[in-house]
């Protein structure tokens, strides 16, 4: 029996099963489901390459000479069908997100984008990158400036900047905060396809660390993000930015922090020692975000408690198969925000999307990246035009 081939096929088959039907419990199985399912769900073509290469090698070495060998081939064939479903599901995200954009921004929203901002907006997936370089996030036209201190907490108060090597003047700013349940994670790890894409298009992007549990609690993380905003407003001009246009984004816990920041703009309680700093934001991007209270604290620690009519525009994206933050929570927050806010709210529900879908150049995340850039262009166009 070709044990090596059978093992390879079994791992890919299990990942495909978890991509299609992730499990929440028991915990050991849920952890395996999360990591294997996420990898296959966002990188189905890599799984196809592995399946094809291992099958070809098994035949080339005459390993398929028993009932066990043919059983492995049959499992590979079934797995290939499952991978086709995964890829087809992800391929449909672009149209689904476009419909969500129209629902949130109104019919004809693309025509309302200023001509200079509409130029270069991407409408088709970058297939060469998705198929051949899905895990390679860097771009030759983007420079990363690492480890700039914005506070006094050592490495937890460091940020990286990404800007075009040409350093165009007047660039808008995107600040991104990583996830990790407020207990882990680090900058330069999540949403890098988004940051490099925007930086290559002339933005100045920031990815930052912040203080973590258990040594620090809410509102320490929130204060850190407001410090980052204040630092950007003071220093980002050195890298070509005009921080008058400043978007804040986050993944998972980072999205929780971004939403809280946007909904508590200018609140001196969260700006100790820098109460007069401008910590306002232009708009918010929340990816696979948790919107509830913080670790047993009261409802005031949740973004939902701070929703008001003067909230900035929001773009929310959440996978309907997220096992860490149930999609019902994202739907509820989006609904509450839409009913209260006087400005656009886009909620894009990703069919088959798992938690942490923002790691790779995948069909799904590239569609989200393109939508975020288009959303930002529409918001910036709207900012230029006095609103009634």
Question: How would you characterize this protein structure?
Answer:
This protein has helices at residues 3-20, 27-42, 44-60, 67-91, 93-105, 115-118, 127-132, 192-200, 220-235, 253-263, 327-340, 363-384, and strands spanning 142-149, 158-164, 171-177, 204-208, 241-251, 283-287, 314-319, 345-350. By secondary structure, the chain is α/β, with parallel strands linked by helices. The N and C termini lie far apart (73 Å). The mean pLDDT is 96.
Q: Give the proportion of residues in helices.
A: 40-55%
Q: Give the oligomeric state of the chains in this entry, treating copies of one chain as homo and distinct chains as hetero.
A: single chain
Mean pLDDT: 96
Distance between the first and last residues' Cα: 73 Å
Q: Which H/E pattern describes the elements?
A: HHHHHHHEEEHEHEHEEHEH
Instruction: Count the DSSP helices.
Output: 12
Broad CATH class of the largest domain? Alpha Beta
Sketch the major β-sheet.
8 strands, mixed
Low-confidence stretches: none
* CATH topology type of the largest domain: Rossmann fold
Radius of gyration: 22 Å
- Trace the largest sheet across and list its strands: 1-2-4-3-5-6-7-8
Beta-sheet strand percentage?
5-15%
Q: Could you name the CATH homologous superfamily of the largest domain? A: Alpha/Beta hydrolase fold, catalytic domain
Say how many strands there are.
8
Categorize the overall geometry: globular
How many discrete structural domains? 2
The class by helix and strand makeup works out as alpha/beta
